[in-house]
Amino acid sequence: MDQVDLIWQNGDFVRWEDAQVHVLSHGLHYGTGVFEGIRCYETERGPAIFRHRDHLARLERSASLYYLELPYSAEELRAATHELLRRNGLKSCYIRPLAFRGYGEMGLYAKSAPIEMIIAVWPWGAYLGDEGKRKGIRAKVSSWRRIGPGGLIPHAKASGQYLNSILAKTESANAGYEEAILLDERGFVCEGSGENIFVIRDGEVVTPPHVASILDGISRKSVIQIARDLGYTVVERDIARAELYLAEEVFLIGTAAELVPVREIDDHPLGEGKPGEITTHIQAKFEDALYGRAEEYLEWLDFVEAPAEVDAPSKVTP
Ligand code: PPE
């Protein structure tokens, strides 16, 4: 990891190496945590956090779905994040807020174990690589189904739930693919291990609906709006597995990965085996939105006061 100076932990700014937890923290044993993945981009008007308030609102919803009471308000977390970016002197980075049941009580109904919170920030390049973003990646449909609403909560971004994503990711990586595509319990297309999915069929932009056990992705929501604004028809409907192979184009999208074209699924090349026209059109606009180059989407950006320049050592004058 690319280390920076400070991590925000339970209200304090602590040194990166001092941000520790007790080994009997509840979240470590049972996965009782909720988190977010957010990005800050360097724009012409200074550093800007993409859809910051939307991410914090989802964090609050994830916490509430698991009966975890956040000890800080979204506004407090937002202010802490701005301050953390300034103090670390960062202009662009990944932002990871995490709330988890901490140390104090074991067992499954550990109401007295306190909820702890951290916000960490670090420079993180495109999750599936810059080349993947430009040339497209190879994906494999996972033998693992995405967690269903009968046992867990696909709408929540909860730590323990990621064991499901990790199984899928590990299987695809071990088989030599860059990403896994998970089907839902019913066998319809759901999403990538950490990204939502879009399929282009007969010129229409198609993406699985909420009932297909997807995470309600913020990049997904942004792309639906961008695609409609660009004049495409966007349809939220169930997608059959074979439609992945028959699609003209497929792309994955998430905060860490950004928009990544898929050029091959289960060894079936898509289109011409390179990113298609609609994908690259939407990708260009999405990147404009991230980097503050699209006036119409400026409201998605939460601008951060430019970080203080690192102080030059003061000269001692005799
Ligand atoms: N589905 C899943 C399962 C998921 O984890 C993410 C984000 C998305 C969809 C896309 O959601 P959004 O970022 O709001 O557009 N995954 C985060 C964590 C990735 C990781 O490996 O860690 C992220 O992209 O930050």
Task: Please give a structural write-up.
By secondary structure, the protein is α+β, with helices and mostly antiparallel strands. Helices cover 27% and strands 27% of the residues. The protein contains eight helices and 17 strands. The chain has helices spanning 26-30, 52-65, 74-88, 130-135, 162-174, 218-229, 241-246, 277-290, and strands at residues 6-9, 12-15, 33-35, 38-43, 46-50, 93-101, 115-122, 137-141, 179-183, 189-192, 196-201, 204-207, 234-236, 249-254, 258-265, 268-269, 301-303. The strands form two sheets. Strands 8, 9, 10, 11, 12, 13, 14, 15 and 16 form a nine-stranded mixed sheet that branches. Strands 1, 2, 3, 4, 5, 6, 7 and 17 form an eight-stranded antiparallel sheet that branches. Helix 2 packs across helix 3. The longest helix is centred in the first third of the chain and has 15 residues, at 74-88. The chain is globular, with a radius of gyration of 20 Å. Residues 310-318 have low confidence and may be disordered. The site of ligand PPE has 14 residues, from helix 6.
Strands, helices and their partners?
Blueprint: E1 6-9, E2 12-15, H1 26-30, E3 33-35, E4 38-43, E5 46-50, H2 52-65, H3 74-88, E6 93-101, E7 115-122, H4 130-135, E8 137-141, H5 162-174, E9 179-183, E10 189-192, E11 196-201, E12 204-207, H6 218-229, E13 234-236, H7 241-246, E14 249-254, E15 258-265, E16 268-269, H8 277-290, E17 301-303
Parallel strand pairs: 8-9, 8-15, 12-13
Antiparallel strand pairs: 1-2, 1-7, 3-6, 4-5, 4-6, 5-17, 6-7, 9-10, 11-12, 11-14, 14-15, 15-16
Ligand PPE binds next to helix 6.
